[in-house]
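Q: Could you fold this chain for me?
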Amino acid sequence: MADATPREGLPGARPPRPIPLKERASIVFVDRGQLDVIDGAFVLVDANGVRMVIPVGGLAAIMLEPGTRTSHAAVALAARAGTLLIWVGEAGVRLYSTGQPGGARADKLLWQCRLALDPDARLNIVRRMFQVRFGEAAPERRSVDQLRGIEGARVRTIYQGLASQFGVTWKRRNYDPSEFDTSDVPNRCLSAATSCLYGITEAAVLAAGYAPAIGFLHAGKPLSFVYDIADLYKFETVVPEAFRVAGQHAKGKLDKPVDMAVRHACRDAFRRSNILSRLIPGIEDILVAGGLERPGMISEDVVGPAFADPPPSGDAGQRG
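A: Sure. Below is the predicted structure, expressed as structure tokens.
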């Protein structure tokens, strides 16, 4: 018999079941409107009352820019659908808050913590990240700090090479998240591009059941693990697009604001690379390299759940 439990505010409607991340579109930005649930649809209502329907369950993340208001019903529906809401600043480059629909797998969180606290496991993971990122084994007998320094030097070389390829004047990576417009155009393009990648990566981390703050190469930030994972993919997706857009701007061939052009380019790059189908397997691959066995979901000396949960239809970390 079908579950007829009504959803809040929508009598008779069944709760939505999350769609796996690999089957979703990547990301959208919204601004200057009210997000709400009207007649069962997730909509953005502008100042004139015009509704734009947003397929909330088919997106990995929604970036809410200044000028956006959000109703309780909209936040609740996004959480049930497993779609990450991210409140950001102008051009999406300053993070204020996120609504986190993940965190449903205690076993994965405990495993991630064990890996981060074990020096050997952490080094193994950082070495695997180096291999995935650069396509070669990490140098032997190097500490995490030494590998971080080697990576930094390689990244600077990649930036300079892309700048030369696209005809961009490049000095160094330099930006102030609170003052987006004070940076030069290449840095603004990079900031806008990486914010897109961080959004879908955080959605993947949560959907997989892990904690964004527990990183291995990065540490001490709310999104340390997000930065770790995003770095594995950014030079094949968003960074070349950022320099390409900056090059078009330098040649006077850009007919839209740079941040908008970068977002559109990143959206297309995500689609071409099929990144949403690769993020969660990539996370698992990195963590398995630590070499520690996963802990069980429930220890023998704790009280188990009183009622069994139905099988999830989405990813392991989603609560649907």
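A (continued): The longest strand covers residues 25-30.
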